Amino acid sequence: HNSYGFTMWMAGGGVRGGVSVGTTDELGAAAVEQPMHVKRLHATILHQLGLDPNRLSYFYNGLDQKLVGVEHVEPIREILA
């Protein structure tokens, strides 16, 4: 598990096919172009489900929590159809 550079794919749900965003170094060890936090992936999925990722919260352990954290996060628009 390498949190500095990894590959993933998505299909369906309004995701454009054949799109690649960002690159890693020659070893695949770290992102060198367009590094993104996993919160942007969460925001993208919530957006495609019709939910506002920056407003959605859930009650856990006595606090309102947000999947994308407290700072404003944008979906990964480059992959949306």
Structure at a glance:
This protein has 81 residues and is α+β, with helices and mostly antiparallel strands. The protein is built from one helix and four strands; from the N terminus they run ββαββ.
What's the arrangement of secondary structure elements?
Layout: E1 23-24, E2 31-33, H1 38-48, E3 58-60, E4 63-65
Antiparallel strand pairs: 1-2, 3-4
Defining traits:
two-stranded antiparallel ribbon; single chain; 14% strand; 81 residues; two-stranded antiparallel sheet; 4 strands
**Rounded Rg:** 14 Å
> Runs with pLDDT <50, length 5+?
none
The SSE order reads EEHEE
Biggest sheet layout? 2 strands, antiparallel
- Count of DSSP-assigned helices: 1
Structural class: alpha+beta
Beta percentage is 5-15%
Average predicted local confidence, pLDDT: 92
Share of helix among residues?
A: 10-25%
Number of strands: 4
- Read across the widest sheet, the strand sequence of neighbours is 1-2
What's the N-to-C terminus distance? 29 Å
Overall outline = globular
Describe this structure in words.
The protein has 81 residues and is an alpha+beta fold. It has a domain at 36-79. The protein is built from one helix and four strands, in the order ββαββ. The strands form two sheets. It has a two-stranded antiparallel sheet with strand order 1-2. A hairpin with a 2-residue loop joins strand 3 and strand 4 (63-65). The mean pLDDT is 92.
